[in-house]
Amino acid sequence: MTEHNGLRRVIQESVPGKQITLAHVIAMPSVKVLRSIGVDETDVSIGIITITPPEAAAIISDIASKSGAVKIAFIDRFSGSVVLTGDVSAVEASLRKGIDALHQNLGFDIPEITKS
Predict the structure, then answer these.
(1) pTM for this prediction
(2) pLDDT exceeds 90 at position 115
């Protein structure tokens, strides 16, 4: 980030490739976190995924949402961000199915699913 005459300039860059950069489950998020991302429910877990190329967010959202009792809380095909909600086991299983499908069928590099 650079600054010139009080204006900030941010340069964002996307590296070509097929990669899931983050796959994380928050088992019991606070109500503040849920509300800040626009989730009105309580007693739900959230799964967060970031993916490159960002258009693949639609693919993993489709696979994950068909793989378990989860809802798509947020999807952004421009940044590659996906947020799923549901009970912790459903979120974990749906993330795993989506990640495995992209790895096996499309050759995506994948991370371990982390959890907090």
Answers:
(1) 0.81
(2) yes
- The answer to whether residues 8 and 2 touch, using CB atoms and an 8 Å cutoff, is yes
Residue 10 has which token pair?
Answer: 């941010």
* Burial state string for 26-48 with b = 16 or more CB within 10 A and e = fewer than 16: beebeeeebeeeebeeeebbbbb
Helices 88-106 & 56-66 angle (0-180, nearest 10): 130
Q: Could you please report the per-residue DSSP string of 57-115?
A: HHHHHHHHHHSSS-EEEEEETTTTEEEEEE-HHHHHHHHHHHHHHHHHHH--B-PPPEE
- Lowest mean pLDDT segment, chosen from 5-14, 38-47, 66-75, 104-113: 5-14
Other CB atoms within 10 Å distance of the CB of residue 98:
29
Q: Identify which of 9-13, 35-39, 66-70 has the greatest average pLDDT.
A: 66-70
